[in-house]
């Protein structure tokens, strides 16, 4: 970043030690301080405070310059070498921090812990005292400009069961220090990936010994979270318990509920890392709350990617289910909706409560509109409270609490006047009784045009504090005196270019251009004008009168800032004293936002309330894909709805229990993938309590949702597309239950025809006979449709296509029965393949169809028993083995040596 001589080194410290004699072998005091601080944080970029800038040196400067696109300069020497340097202004540091964190860097923020004037008083080569006050990492962000408004910013701590290298259990703590959320989990090894995919943490901390497991580390890295290893062993057991007791000021952990040792270890590790990164600041964290993973539909990472729930396969939000569903009007509501969507419920009573609330708002559009107007005026209270607790907040955060509380009271009063269902009645009662003392106090205390930083002052309203009003009057009157004095000095110096300015290091000074400055250095002007500083194109002076005025002004301005700082601290203390009530209020507003948004979506898109129970039902009438329909609607095109029936009977001794397995055939581009995905998305929507895009829907609760759709590879881990397909399919077959929903598309197409057909065949049999899940299985292996003869719960569906004058027309309709062909050549023609290639393909296809495989496959289906073990090969007879060995020899193609070796081999075989 470019510098000028005014701000290059405002503290006056000795940075250019290399200019002194023998400096090549010396380290200047300032650089010694920098290096000492840097040694304590080798894995971080060090933001070293110098005046109004954060400076970076050496390799940190090179990395920051490249990442941020700012100029890399050099200043002074260290051990004979130029010191690379770059810097960012403090007032814009959040923007630069955001870029650095997004690129995977960690930043140590080193602040000046004393006034530079105090260092100058000590004389000599004293440097300003500095210390690192915070480590900025992806999982510990709190600043509004560093956070995504609609996404939680989770830090996850992970521990494995103690004293067991092959442990089957993990403890996990998830904290969002920007909101205070603190949840703990226990999960099995096989479900760890699904839980991490649900949480989408920004950073994961774990012991180095745990991360030494390369398989586990690869699994943790799949979600894109930053991985932070810790080498201390004192975070577990009694140390973890003590950490929790000390943090919350408890005498016993009984008040936290029945937490397991894994949950305590994970929570203790999380708190230890937070303390390490936040130093003296203590985030306001809720007490850790146990979350039962089985309370939510389990959706693994691959399924979330395939279905594009919150992130598209390219990493974008647009085009996802969350994008199509989100009608929330507040940041907190958007985060809550994302959390609901990430963890659909399995409790039908809780689902019904949400449905009742959404139906209530759907039936009362006027109330819904009023509430959404009030909710839109409610700022992000939880994150504002989090910043205030960490002493990083400002006047606008206090205003957020004020406005949020007023909006909450209005929402509560509006709801209480109606007859809302149970879930909303509880919220209405709570919100309508909010104590208005705090928001009224904040309304009186805060001015209108609030600065972001409390140190800027001028945020307390006039009339709130009389001593403050008096100090401001003196300060503001002095400004008029300064203006008058500037006019007087212009006359004395015989120039209109004279200005009286101020900065934090020189105080008030007179500035003129270079030519006028040379004039003021000479008599008679130098008797009054005292030279202070020479710049590249200007000179600075002072006078005795100006110095006296500065003292009066400084005292008045400092007194005003001190009073405002005291008032700010009092208001923050009052707010933090009600943090539990404020958090409950924010949570209630966020839930209201989501429920009114779900009703808004249902009203606009014509969605209906599904019936959700504990059966194996899955009947969708005229279902639609919510994302595709939204995209088509924007283009003025209709969506073709389709039915789906996968319902079955619950287990027991009935051998025919389980859901249906629907095999879907038809050409590419006919809509198979859309049909598969839309039914999975409808199940998710139903279980978050939303209405769904269908004419009617009856869904038995899905415990686990699996999807294997599309093709991708994992070259970094040495996996081909087919290998990835098989790994994901294996996970499905090993975990799916009778209550699961399985979506499979084109299993076995990544290998040879008969290999792929065999794998797809075996997978279908296993799904039908062992998993018994409700399943949709799209395939181009038409031979598999004949399994209907042996698998009673298998149904054949096909995508309807019209062949009009040799051209294929996709109807996007699902019909009963099997497709007669795949129309692959027609699709290739539509894609623009050369005419000669298409015609040659038609010719080859005609020849291949002469050797139709359908009749042999039909016979094989009828003859081959399900899951019949292959008979062991009969023991080979010695005589037969010798005959086979002899038959394999070709004497005409053997050298004499090879023939002799073969003869000896036959002799040994005959003697054995």
Q: Can you give the mean pLDDT? A: 85
CATH class of the largest domain: Alpha Beta
Rg estimate, integer Å:
36 Å
What is the strand arrangement across the widest sheet?
Answer: 13-23-24-25-21-26-27
Unreliable stretches: 1-8, 17-24
Total individual domains: 6
Tally of DSSP helical segments: 31
Structural class: alpha/beta
GO molecular function: ATP binding; ATP-dependent DNA damage sensor activity; damaged DNA binding; mismatched DNA binding
Protein name: DNA mismatch repair protein MutS
Binding site for ATP: 666-673
Family: Belongs to the DNA mismatch repair MutS family.
In short:
45% of the residues lie in helices and 17% in strands.
Provide an overview of this structure.
With 912 residues, the chain is an alpha/beta fold. It has 6 domains: 17-136, MutS, DNA mismatch repair protein, domain I; 149-295, 2-Layer Sandwich (Nucleotidyltransferase, domain 5); 326-435 and 578-605, MutS, DNA mismatch repair protein, Chain A, domain 3 (Orthogonal Bundle); 466-571, MutS, DNA mismatch repair protein, Chain A, domain 3 (Orthogonal Bundle), CATH 1.10.1420; 611-863, Rossmann fold (3-Layer(aba) Sandwich); 879-911, no CATH class. The chain is 45% helix and 17% strand. It contains 31 helices and 27 strands. The chain has a 7-stranded mixed sheet with strand order 13-23-24-25-21-26-27, sandwiched between helices. Strands 3-4-2-1-5-6 form a 6-stranded mixed sheet, sandwiched between helices. Strand 24 (741-745), helix 26 (753-771) and strand 25 form a beta-alpha-beta unit. The longest helix is centred in the middle third of the chain and has 33 residues, at 544-576. The radius of gyration is 36 Å and the shape is globular.
């Amino acid at each position: 970043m470019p510098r000028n001589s005014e701000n290059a080194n405002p503290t006056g410290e000795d940075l250019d030690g290399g200019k002194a004699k023998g400096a090549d072998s010396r380290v200047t005091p300032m650089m010694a301080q920098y290096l000492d601080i840097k040694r304590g944080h080798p894995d971080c970029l060090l933001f070293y405070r110098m005046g109004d800038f954060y400076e970076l040196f050496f390799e940190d400067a090179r990395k920051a310059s490249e990442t941020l696109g700012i100029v890399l300069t050099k200043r002074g020497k260290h051990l004979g070498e130029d010191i690379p340097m770059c810097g960012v202004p403090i007032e814009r540091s959040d923007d630069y921090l955001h870029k650095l964190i997004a690129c995977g860097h960690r930043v140590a923020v080193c602040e000046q812990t004393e006034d530079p004037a105090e260092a100058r008083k000590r004389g000599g080569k004293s440097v300003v005292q500095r210390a690192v006050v915070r480590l900025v990492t992806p999982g510990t962000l709190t600043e509004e400009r560093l956070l995504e408004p609609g996404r939680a910013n989770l830090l996850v701590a992970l521990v494995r069961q103690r004293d067991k290298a092959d442990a089957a259990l993990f403890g996990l703590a998830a904290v969002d220090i920007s909101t205070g959320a603190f949840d703990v989990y226990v999960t099995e090894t096989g479900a760890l990936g699904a839980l991490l995919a649900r949480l989408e943490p920004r950073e994961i901390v774990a012991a180095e010994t745990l991360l030494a497991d390369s398989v586990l580390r690869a699994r943790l890295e799949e979600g894109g979270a930053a991985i932070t290893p810790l080498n201390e062993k004192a975070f577990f057991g009694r140390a973890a318990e003590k950490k929790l007791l000390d943090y919350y000021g408890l005498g016993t952990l009984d008040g936290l509920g029945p937490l397991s040792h894994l949950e305590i270890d994970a929570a203790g590790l999380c708190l230890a890392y937070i303390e390490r990164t936040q130093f003296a600041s203590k985030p306001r964290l809720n007490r850790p709350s146990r979350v039962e993973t089985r309370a939510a539909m389990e959706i693994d990472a691959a399924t979330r990617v395939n279905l594009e729930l919150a992130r598209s396969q390219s990493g974008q939000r647009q085009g996802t289910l969350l994008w199509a569903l989100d009608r929330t009007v507040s940041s907190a509501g958007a985060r809550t909706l994302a959390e609901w969507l990430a963890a659909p419920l399995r409790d039908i009573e809780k689902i019904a409560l949400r449905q009742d609330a959404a139906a209530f708002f759907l039936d009362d559009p006027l109330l819904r509109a009023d509430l959404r107007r009030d909710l839109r005026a409610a700022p992000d209270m939880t994150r504002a409270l989090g910043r205030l607790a960490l002493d990083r907040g400002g006047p606008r955060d206090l205003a957020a609490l004020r406005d949020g509380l007023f909006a909450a009271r209005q929402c509560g009063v509006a709801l209480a006047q109606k007859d809302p269902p149970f879930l909303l009645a509880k919220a209405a009662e709570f919100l309508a009784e909010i104590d208005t003392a705090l928001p009224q106090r904040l309304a009186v205390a805060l001015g209108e045009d609030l600065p972001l930083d409390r140190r800027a002052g001028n945020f307390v309203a006039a009339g709130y504090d009389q001593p403050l009003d008096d100090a401001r009057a003196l300060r503001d009157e002095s400004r008029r005196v300064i203006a008058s004095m500037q006019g007087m000095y212009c006359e004395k110096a015989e120039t209109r270019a004279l200005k009286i300015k101020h900065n934090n290091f020189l105080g008030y000074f007179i500035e003129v251009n270079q030519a006028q400055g040379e004039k003021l250095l000479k008599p008679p002007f130098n008797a009054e004008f005292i030279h202070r500083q020479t710049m590249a194109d200007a000179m600075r002076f002072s006078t005795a009168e100006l110095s006296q005025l500065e003292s009066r002004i400084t005292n008045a301005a400092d007194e005003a800032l001190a009073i405002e700082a005291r008032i700010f601290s009092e208001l923050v203390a009052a707010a933090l004293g009600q943090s539990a009530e404020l958090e409950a209020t924010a949570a209630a507003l966020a839930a209201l936002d989501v429920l009114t948004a779900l009703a808004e979506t249902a009203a606009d898109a014509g969605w209906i309330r599904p019936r959700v129970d504990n059966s194996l039902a899955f009947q969708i009438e005229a279902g639609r894909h919510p994302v595709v329909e939204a995209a088509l609607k924007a283009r003025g095109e209709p969506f073709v709805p389709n039915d789906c029936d996968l319902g079955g009977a619950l287990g027991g001794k009935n051998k025919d229990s389980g859901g249906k397995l629907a095999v879907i055939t038809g050409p590419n581009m006919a809509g198979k993938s859309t049909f598969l995905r839309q039914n999975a998305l409808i199940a998710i929507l139903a279980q978050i309590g939303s209405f769904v895009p269908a004419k009617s829907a009856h869904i038995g609760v899905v415990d686990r949702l699996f999807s294997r759709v599309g093709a991708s590879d994992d070259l970094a881990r040495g996996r081909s597309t087919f290998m990835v397909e098989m790994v994901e399919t294996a996970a499905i077959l090993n975990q799916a239950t009778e209550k699961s929903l399985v979506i499979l598309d084109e299993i076995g197409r990544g290998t040879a025809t008969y290999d792929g057909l065999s794998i797809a065949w075996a997978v279908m049999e296993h799904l039908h006979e062992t998993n018994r899940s409700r399943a949709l299985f799209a395939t181009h292996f038409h031979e598999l449709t004949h399994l209907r003869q042996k698998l009673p719960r298998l149904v054949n569906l096909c995508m309807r296509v019209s062949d009009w004058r040799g051209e294929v027309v996709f109807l996007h309709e699902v019909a009963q029965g099997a497709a007669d062909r795949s129309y692959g050549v027609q699709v290739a023609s539509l894609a623009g393949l050369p005419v000669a290639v298409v015609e040659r393909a038609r010719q080859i296809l005609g020849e291949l169809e002469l050797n139709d495989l359908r009749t042999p496959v039909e016979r094989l289906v009828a003859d081959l028993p399900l899951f019949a073990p292959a008979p062991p090969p009969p023991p080979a007879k010695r005589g037969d083995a010798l005959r086979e060995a002899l038959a394999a020899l070709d004497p005409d193609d053997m050298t004499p040596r090879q023939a002799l070796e073969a003869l000896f081999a036959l002799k040994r075989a005959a003697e054995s």
